[in-house]
UniProtKB/TrEMBL annotation:
GO molecular function: kynurenine-oxoglutarate transaminase activity; pyridoxal phosphate binding
Protein name as annotated: Aminotransferase
The Aminotransferase class I/classII large domain, residue ranges: 25-375
One Gene Ontology cellular component annotation held by this UniProt entry: cytoplasm
Entry-linked InterPro entries: Aminotransferase_I/II_large (IPR004839), Kynurenine-oxoglutarate_AT (IPR051326), PyrdxlP-dep_Trfase (IPR015424), PyrdxlP-dep_Trfase_major (IPR015421), PyrdxlP-dep_Trfase_small (IPR015422)
Entry coiled-coil feature ranges: none
Keyword terms of this UniProt record: Aminotransferase, Pyridoxal phosphate, Transferase
Names of required cofactors: pyridoxal 5'-phosphate
Species in which this protein is naturally found: Sphingomonas naasensis
One Pfam family this sequence matches: Aminotran_1_2
Classification via NCBIfam families: PRK08912.1
Length: 384
């Protein structure tokens, strides 16, 4: 067995969702909406399945989807991308794997920001890379120049940024992004930008892609996800965007991973990107209302809720809630009360923050209300 995987357990998302299935608890752990998604995209997928080719599409993706992604980013983020700078992947995690396997040489160091998506570290290590961690602190989770300076060495080649940041539910400010761009240019780093939450932002906040900052156009890989844009996580359609010298290498790695992605889903996503801006905007407002509903209910139950400006998630601070349990023990106690959440310590590879718990709020009002009622009823036992 490869040592990266030999001692590895099941991802926290699958583990906690399995607990929800086993116990009948309300699943506010894994990040998926219980909304069916945009009907137009589902109908386009069904039409394409029945009426178009189901044989191998082009390895880099259907031309229609690559053009739709480029046009989408031109309209929404003022990026000047060509279709041949877009490589379609089977989800954003495959895009991450292809990028890291394509670019990392053994011994290359990669700066990672904790808390982080749990796929990052094993993928970096499997590619032969060496993680260099920058630890972000609640409640604001800010990136500082001092922390970056402490992490970089002469062997550092890459910076992997998740923005908006899951699980912190924060967005890097324009000033932070400008600082990161300057840092990448000064140290000749390639930025791998996991931007899957780019359309799930609240309170009027607008996502700014790092690839659009000065000096970053030729040294960035921008990763996106149709599953997040359209709340269709099971579609597993993603993409990598990069300047041609990088894109050609990314495509070579992709061809020996999944090679391609179901063509009917590609056609459906292309149609969605071209026609469903209004649905995406409405979904953002619905999710924002769910955030506010859950935040208010948790606060009424005596839990200290941290700010959430993006993603499907919000977190609570256990110490600020006068709860002496760590996040793992709290989540175990919460399952007994009939609700599943995620301990944020699972998003750290070292020196974890142990007092933060994450909840998913992109659920129907009745689901959120039932979870709030169970948490409120068990509040006293949860605090001991």
């Amino acid at each position: 067995m490869h040592p990266v995987y030999a001692q590895m357990g099941t991802t926290i998302f699958e583990a906690m969702s399995a607990r929800a299935r086993e116990t009948g608890a309300i699943n506010l752990g894994q990040g998926f909406a219980d909304d069916p998604g945009p009907p137009a995209v589902l109908e386009a997928a069904a039409r394409a399945l029945l009426g178009k080719s189901n044989q191998y599409p082009p390895m880099a993706g259907l031309a229609e989807l690559r053009e739709a992604v480029a046009d989408h980013y031109c309209r929404h983020q003022a990026l000047d991308l060509a279709a041949d700078e877009v490589i379609v992947t089977s989800g954003a995690t495959e895009a991450l794997a292809a990028t890291l396997l394509a670019l990392i040489s053994p011994g290359d160091e990669v700066i990672l920001f904790q808390p982080l998506y749990d796929a990052y570290v094993p993928l970096v290590r499997r590619a032969g890379g060496v993680p260099r961690f920058v630890r972000l602190e609640p409640p604001h989770w800010k990136i500082t120049r001092e922390a970056l300076a402490a992490a970089v060495t002469p062997r550092t080649r890459f910076l992997l940024l998740n923005n908006p940041l899951n699980p912190a539910a924060t967005m890097a400010s324009a000033a932070e992004l400008a600082m990161l761009a300057d840092f990448c240019v000064a140290h000749d780093l390639i930025a791998i930008c996991d931007e899957v939450w780019e359309h799930v932002t609240f309170d009027g906040a607008r996502h700014l892609p790092l690839i659009g900052f000065p000096g970053m156009r030729e040294r960035s890989v921008k990763i996106g996800s149709a599953g997040k844009i359209f709340a269709l996580t099971g579609f597993k359609v993603g993409w990598m965007c990069a300047a041609p010298p990088l894109a050609r290498v990314l495509a070579r790695a992709h061809q020996f991973l999944t090679f391609t992605t179901p063509p009917n889903l590609q056609w459906a996503v292309a149609e969605g990107l071209a026609t469903q801006d209004a649905w995406v905007q409405d979904a953002r407002h619905r999710f924002e209302r769910g955030r506010d509903r859950l935040a208010a209910g948790l606060a009424d139950a005596g839990l200290a809720v941290l700010p959430s400006v993006a993603t499907y998630f919000l977190s609570v601070d256990l110490a600020a809630s006068d709860i002496a349990l760590d996040d793992v023990a709290f989540c175990e106690r919460l399952i007994e009360a009939g609700v599943v959440a995620i301990p944020v310590s699972a998003f750290y590879a070292e020196a974890p923050v142990t007092g933060i718990v994450r909840f998913c709020f992109v659920k129907q009002d009745a689901t959120l209300d039932a979870a709030i009622e169970r948490i409120g009823a068990a509040r006293e036992t949860l605090g001991r």
